[in-house]
Specification:
alpha/beta, 5-stranded mixed beta sheet, 11 helices, disordered C terminus, binds 5'-O-[(R)-(carboxyoxy)(hydroxy)phosphoryl]adenosine, binds zinc ion
Amino acid sequence: MLVLGIETSCDETAAALVTDGREIRANVVLSQLDEHAPYGGIVPEIAARSHIEHLDGVIGRAMSEAGAEFADLDGVAATAGPGLIGAVMVGLMTGKAVATVQDVPLAAVNHLEGHALSARLSDADLCFPYLLLLVSGGHCQFLTVDGVARYRRLGTTIDDAAGEAFDKAAKLLGLGYPGGPAIERAAEDGDGARFDLPRPLKGRKGCDFSFSGLKTALLHKVRAFEDGLDDATRADFAASFQQAVADVVVERGLNAIRQFMVAHPGGCSLVVAGGVAANSLLRQRLKTLAAENGLTLVAPPLALCTDNAAMIAWAGIERLGLGLRDGLDAAPRARWPLDGSAPPPPGAGRPGKLGPKA
Ligand code: KG4
Ligand code: ZN
């Protein structure tokens, strides 16, 4: 089965061709970073217009890199949300058009399901169920993945996502956007023990996250340098911040593993996915955490961690393989949780009501 994947939920225009034999025949990602840079963040209208302008060309490039014709397609998978609604619409409409013209089935894919299943594209041995840490610019959650379309959320962030925290911290330190890679680079020369930053929710029950207090603490410490930061201090801040995020994820992760093992005593894998999974300190720390608890860490290669269309094509292959097809009435969605039945995180928007200390 050869499937065209299309991803336009945020600021990457991406197309990929993937087979059900896990061969990635093309994986083209066009970043819009330069178009948004003058505004200091992503402008939804610019994103949508840029997708319209570039998507056809990106799909054409993927086709020619794969040496494929539209007539060779057995299916089309397009991100249908969550994301910037105008941006999602461009990719989903294009996917519907290609599927209709070629008369092949359509999968309207949840972008988060793309991340959640991406490790099964790179690792043929990864079986359900597994514990998933989904860490991206918009999400920071632990979920059990019981199967395709079967997710149970164990914990989530009550404020910022991890990637968002990296991006805000980088902005504060004058390191630019996207913040994660910039912080990781700067941290290479830094001393992660120099600045004492908080580890929010440490010692609390459950595996929810909070990052806003960490960001605020960083802000106060940076402001204390009234004459600005020199490169060495900036590197120490980056390293201290990265260290704090990794500590938080590992501390929360231990609780998540315990919850997972109770529900799935035979489970053997911890999977990390999403853009922040590209962070090498985080990968290293999670690998140790998994090993200490009898699990194996499975992390997709970097190109499948940050937003891409190969993971969307793969999620489509998994869904279509189970007979899960979508019609032309599939709607683009700005919000679309993987576990629709999960309650709001405890204390969300209500500081001080975070439940008892464990
Ligand atoms: O999954 P993704 O590409 O887009 C979303 O769906 O959000 O994730 C983007 C996020 C950004 O916040 C970016 O700063 C972060 O992933 N990121 C990283 C690294 N590379 C990307 N964070 C930490 N370390 C990295 N190496
Ligand atoms: Zn993403």
